[in-house]
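Q: what sequence does this backbone want?
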């Protein structure tokens, strides 16, 4: 499934969860709430999905099976597990409220990161604009001046003029590649930063993103009534962490979850310590709630710091670069 379609599907599911939670809070039973939501939905695709689910429920299928046999089947499997567990335990109201709360927090956090990243990208865009003016207007004009004066430019100035002619051919492809990468990064910043975690300076930040994803999904599943082992089984079926299957295998063979996590998934030290205490005290629900909030707070601080550092850095580098080029070009004439 394409990224855009997946985003739309997640938005549909968030809207569905929010509306269902509101209806059930107002004492409607689940089936009646489905019928109301189908009639009131302004999204034809969502209305069609709900209508199909209503038909399947009438034919005897469970709620979770009917909802996730259509378009929602493309969502991560832990969402269906949350609904299935809530259906078995009769806690739909609490499960929907928790699911809505966590999804809204995650969306708000992602939007916050995007806003922080947009300004440095715009600053870099203006820097590229200034560079394009130098490459395509200032340096060609300077080269013409030297020819009219019939004077050979100094070595460094001549080297700069010849280099600008070659660099101008690569400027537009490089600028287009930068903006394409920037747009892709801003659209899904969390996953991209996790991938960039292989770069040494970003490795610690990537660990916090790993912890954010891990605690987010564990919190949802444990809130839905699953114990730690069953939540681990659900997450090992998805693509969240490819090494989660190794963790599940180790735990089933009697190895401590903390030791297995340390071996397979890079996380901040505080995560391993909190997991150890949570397992000993049997309070995994509180543990993952705490880790989720801590990771979100830490990442917001890190993103704000990097943005605050990156913005003036780009401006200073642009000013120095432009000033150096102008100096090399004009000083020999003066």
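A:
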């Amino acid at each position: 499934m394409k990224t855009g379609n997946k985003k739309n599907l997640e938005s549909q599911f968030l809207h569905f969860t929010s509306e269902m939670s509101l209806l059930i809070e107002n004492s409607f039973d689940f089936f009646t709430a489905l019928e109301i939501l189908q009639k009131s939905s302004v999204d034809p695709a969502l209305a069609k999905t709900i209508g199909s689910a209503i038909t399947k429920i009438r034919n005897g299928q469970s709620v979770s099976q009917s909802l996730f046999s259509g378009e929602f089947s493309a969502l991560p499997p832990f969402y269906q597990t949350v609904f299935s567990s809530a259906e078995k335990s009769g806690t739909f109201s609490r499960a929907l409220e928790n699911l809505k709360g966590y999804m809204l927090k995650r969306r708000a956090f992602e939007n916050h990161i995007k806003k922080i990243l947009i300004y440095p990208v715009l600053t870099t865009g203006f820097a590229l604009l200034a560079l394009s003016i130098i490459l395509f207007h200032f340096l060609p004009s300077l080269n013409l001046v030297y020819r009219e004066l019939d004077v050979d430019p100094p070595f460094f100035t001549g080297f700069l003029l010849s280099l600008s002619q070659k660099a101008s051919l690569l400027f537009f492809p490089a600028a287009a590649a930068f903006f394409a990468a920037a747009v892709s990064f801003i659209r899904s910043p969390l996953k991209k930063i996790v991938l960039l975690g292989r770069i040494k300076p970003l490795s610690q930040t990537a660990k916090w993103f790993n912890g954010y994803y891990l605690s987010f999904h564990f919190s949802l599943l444990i809130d839905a009534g699953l114990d730690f082992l069953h939540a681990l089984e659900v997450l090992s079926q998805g693509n969240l962490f490819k090494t989660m299957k190794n963790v599940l295998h180790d735990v089933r063979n009697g190895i401590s979850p903390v030791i297995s996590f340390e071996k397979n998934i890079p996380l901040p030290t505080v995560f391993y310590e909190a997991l150890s205490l949570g397992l000993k005290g049997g309070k995994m629900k509180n543990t993952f709630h705490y880790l989720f909030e801590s990771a979100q707070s830490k990442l917001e601080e890190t993103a704000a710091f990097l943005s605050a550092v990156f913005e003036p850095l780009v401006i200073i580098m642009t000013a120095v670069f432009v000033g150096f080029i102008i100096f090399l070009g004009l000083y020999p004439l003066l």
